[in-house]
TrEMBL record:
Pfam families: Rrf2
Entry GO CC: cytosol
PROSITE patterns: HTH_RRF2_2
One Gene Ontology MF term: DNA-binding transcription factor activity
Coiled coil: none
Superkingdom of origin organism: Bacteria
UniProt protein name: Transcriptional regulator
Length: 143
């Protein structure tokens, strides 16, 4: 099963950026993500703890803690409780040559993949995502 934590967390920040200065409720965001308001509140708490989100004036005024151009996908990714893209099954047979070797072999490759993915994430800002959302909205309007 695919993990959508990063996608949902980016969605929350993009929603807050898009509706900047307006009253925003967790229920409205949950409707956009098609999830529960309690999950949205949990995501927002993690984002506040990571220094990516701040409370604006009033309880429903949320704001990015930094400019969208200064928040990278890696920053967002690192706000998540689970930060490994892949997990190696460590419960393999030690008596089988493949079972004994596969965990350390895959660990090595997975660490390389993780580093490459995080390096790419560091080059994508929330502003890049917002620009693409705006472009997508414009294209949709023309149809």
């Amino acid at each position: 099963m695919a993990n959508t934590q990063l996608s949902d967390t980016i969605h929350v920040l993009a929603y807050i950026s898009y509706f900047s200065g307006q009253k925003i409720t967790s229920q409205e965001m949950a409707s956009s993500i098609q999830t529960s308001a309690s999950l949205v509140r949990k995501i927002m708490a993690s984002l506040k703890q990571a220094g990516l989100l701040k409370q604006g004036h009033g309880t429903t005024n949320l704001a990015l803690a930094r400019d969208a151009a200064e928040i990278t996908v890696r920053d967002i990714y690192r706000s998540l409780p689970q930060q490994e893209l892949f997990h190696v099954d460590q419960k393999t047979s030690s008596t089988c040559p493949v079972g004994a070797a596969i965990p350390p072999v895959l660990d090595h490759y997975y660490m390389e993949i993780q580093a490459a993915a995080e390096a790419k994430m560091a080059r994508i800002s929330l502003q890049d995502i917002m620009n693409d959302i705006d472009l997508q909205a414009q294209l949709t309007e023309k149809l």
